[in-house]
Automatic annotation (TrEMBL):
Belongs to the LysR transcriptional regulatory family. PANTHER family: HTH-TYPE TRANSCRIPTIONAL REGULATOR HDFR, TRANSCRIPTIONAL REGULATOR. GO terms for molecular function: DNA binding; DNA-binding transcription factor activity. InterPro entries: LTTR, LysR_HTH_N, LysR_subst-bd, WH-like_DNA-bd_sf, WH_DNA-bd_sf. Gene3D superfamilies: Periplasmic binding protein-like II, Winged helix-like DNA-binding domain superfamily/Winged helix DNA-binding domain. Transmembrane segments: none annotated. This is DNA-binding transcriptional LysR family regulator. It comes from Mycoplana azooxidifex.
Length: 279
């Protein structure tokens, strides 16, 4: 299958019409129609119904849509791997959740640059579910995420274990109004069990570092990764709330049967080094 046809299919789905897809792809509407016709011949099914309002997916088109994005992503991964930058002998692709990038993945990138100079690196920030899907289909060699769920063909190994602790600012204006932070379903369940009568927070943030910046500026409290806030505890701007429950927050390295076996030990070694070097 021509990947160009799959890209064109996705553009028609995104824009809802052949005309808009042609404009975005900088080709003629006739070329879009020709690519979709070839795709339909290969699938032996029509994928769009065209009308005055644009184009909508047929049942067969809806089924193909589930695979089209993966086809394009896998092709891009293969192309990137084959077309290595000058002076590089191999490519490693790794993803992580946003909250893990600083400082863990920063330390890992520096380790890779120092210890594996012949290996090119491609990185991705995504949600946990999306990362696991990308590892599963081979787009990523591995991913680092919290609370890895079991999926067929994936291997999750414990990388390190953190704690989420309740911390508050130490300024005289500090209030007990806690900020809500999205640390995943396991934390949410544990938090509700520990604080069954606590109302929903007035302010909720999905990214821990942003929540920390907020309470340092405005005062307040919230659950944070213990290692991440240690510098703020040491400089006296934060303190751990006495007698408050702490929650385990393990991080996992997720790989698949498709991961290059020669790459995985290097990824693992660098991440364990970075984890040990991360407060």
């Amino acid at each position: 299958m021509d990947i160009t046809n799959a890209r064109t299919f996705l553009e028609v789905v995104k824009t809802g019409s052949f005309v808009s897809a042609a404009e975005n792809l900088h080709i003629s509407q006739t070329a879009v129609s020709a690519r979709i016709r070839v795709l339909e011949e290969q699938l032996q099914r029509p994928v769009f119904v065209r009308n005055k309002a644009g184009a909508r997916l047929t049942p067969a088109g809806e089924q193909f849509f589930r695979f089209a994005a993966t086809l394009v992503q896998v092709w891009e991964a293969a192309r990137s791997t084959v077309a290595l930058p000058p002076g590089r002998a191999a490519m490693v692709t790794i993803g992580a959740e946003l909250s893990l990038w600083s400082p863990l993945l920063k330390h890992w990138l520096l380790w890779m640059r120092r210890e594996c100079p012949s290996i090119a690196v491609r990185t991705t920030i995504e949600t946990a579910d999306r990362l696991m899907a990308l590892v599963q289909d081979g787009t990523l060699d591995a991913a680092v995420l919290y609370g890895a769920l079991r999926r067929p063909g994936l291997v999750a190994e414990l990388l390190f274990e953190e704690r989420l602790v309740l911390a508050r600012t130490t300024s005289p204006t500090t209030t007990e109004d806690p900020i809500g932070i999205d640390w995943g379903a396991d934390f949410a369940a544990g938090f509700r069990a520990a604080f069954p009568d606590r109302p929903n927070p007035a302010v909720s943030v999905s990214h821990g570092p942003l929540a920390l910046d907020y309470i340092l500026a405005a005062g307040g409290s919230g659950y944070f990764r213990e290692g991440f806030i240690r510098p703020r505890i040491e400089d006296g701007r934060l303190e751990i709330v006495p007698n408050s429950p702490a929650f385990a927050y393990p991080a996992y390295l997720v790989s698949s049967e498709k991961t290059d076996p020669s790459m995985l030990p290097r990824i693992r070694e660098g991440l364990r080094y970075a984890a040990a070097d991360t407060p």
